[in-house]
């Protein structure tokens, strides 16, 4: 056999071996790619895998009753009503469709406000009224006490400002109950419950604190605002079915 023929055969054998190795490598790459794609495409993409349900929120939604028909905004006063008894520390209990909220009042610090709230509660003023506003950023409050249900209603009288806190950080701590207003000396029946430490101007009469049910307000806040924003109607509707005041 000539030297040229031997060299040709040797080159052909080398080429065959190279083709075999390349084929093996390509096959392994295809197998690996297929395995990777299978793992990726079979991952759990269900909603349960993307997020964990909030059990407390689900429980709250299950425990809340549907709200009833709001009462007509037709109870008006010519002047702030006098309390039905001597002003003494008492408890304002709000029976809502989601549970009870108990507020311990401070008549020594805010006598006019507490006296008015005692009389309003005894008159049924707060019954069948919605808590119309929830804020979830910057300030953290649930606002109630408006028979109109939109922030415009009131009893027809104004209360003086009382027991205003000093200016400063978290001057309205969680559990504080204070009067909403449209400026100095314009408090009426609307009030707000602070569910998380909040900083506000020192402009809102503090007349009590929540002694039971603050966790309920916090759960309502956890459900959020109805339109997904940070200030508006609570996504979980809240109605005061009845309010009572006991000295």
Structure description:
The protein has 247 residues and is of the alpha+beta class. It has two domains: 1-43; 55-246, Cyclophilin-like (Cyclophilin). Helices cover 30% and strands 19% of the residues. The chain has five helices and ten strands; from the N terminus they run αααββαββββββαββ. The protein has helices spanning 3-41, 47-50, 55-63, 111-122, 214-223, and strands at residues 91-96, 99-105, 129-130, 133-135, 141-144, 176-179, 191-194, 206-212, 231-232, 239-246. The chain has a ten-stranded antiparallel beta sheet. A hairpin with a 2-residue loop joins β1 (91-96) and β2 (99-105). It is globular and about 45 Å long. The model is unreliable at 2-8 and 20-53 (pLDDT under 50).
Strand order of the largest sheet: 3-10-1-2-8-6-7-5-4-9
* CATH topology-level fold name of the largest domain: Cyclophilin
Class by alpha and beta content:
alpha+beta
- Count of spatially separate domains: 2
What percent of the residues sit in helical stretches (DSSP H or I)? Answer: 25-40%
Q: Quote the distance from N terminus to C terminus.
A: 122 Å
Low-confidence parts: 2-8, 20-53
Please provide the count of β strands: 10
Provide mean pLDDT, rounded.
82
- The CATH superfamily of the largest domain turns out to be Cyclophilin-like
């Amino acid at each position: 056999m000539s030297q040229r023929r031997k060299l040709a055969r040797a080159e052909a054998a080398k080429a065959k071996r190279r083709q075999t190795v390349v084929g093996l490598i390509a096959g392994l790459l295809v197998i690996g790619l297929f395995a990777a794609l299978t793992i990726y495409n079979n991952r759990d993409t269900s909603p349960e895998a993307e997020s964990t349900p909030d059990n407390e929120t689900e429980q709250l939604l299950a425990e809340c009753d549907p709200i009833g028909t709001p009462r007509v905004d037709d109870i008006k006063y010519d002047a702030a009503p006098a309390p039905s008894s001597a002003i003494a520390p008492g408890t304002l209990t709000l029976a809502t469709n989601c549970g009870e909220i108990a507020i311990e009042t401070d008549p020594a610090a805010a006598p006019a406000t507490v006296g008015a709230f005692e009389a309003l509660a005894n008159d049924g003023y707060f019954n069948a009224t919605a808590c119309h506003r929830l804020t979830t950023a910057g300030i953290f409050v649930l606002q109630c006490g408006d028979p109109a249900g939109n922030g415009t209603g009131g009893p027809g009288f104004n209360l003086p400002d009382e027991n205003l806190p000093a200016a400063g950080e978290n001057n309205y701590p969680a559990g504080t109950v204070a009067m909403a207003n449209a400026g100095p000396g314009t408090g009426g029946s609307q009030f707000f419950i602070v569910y998380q430490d909040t900083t506000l101007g020192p402009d809102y009469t503090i007349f009590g604190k929540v002694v039971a049910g603050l966790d309920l307000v916090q759960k309502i806040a956890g459900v959020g605002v109805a339109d997904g924003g940070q200030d508006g109607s609570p996504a979980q509707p809240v109605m005061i079915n009845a309010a009572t005041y006991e000295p």
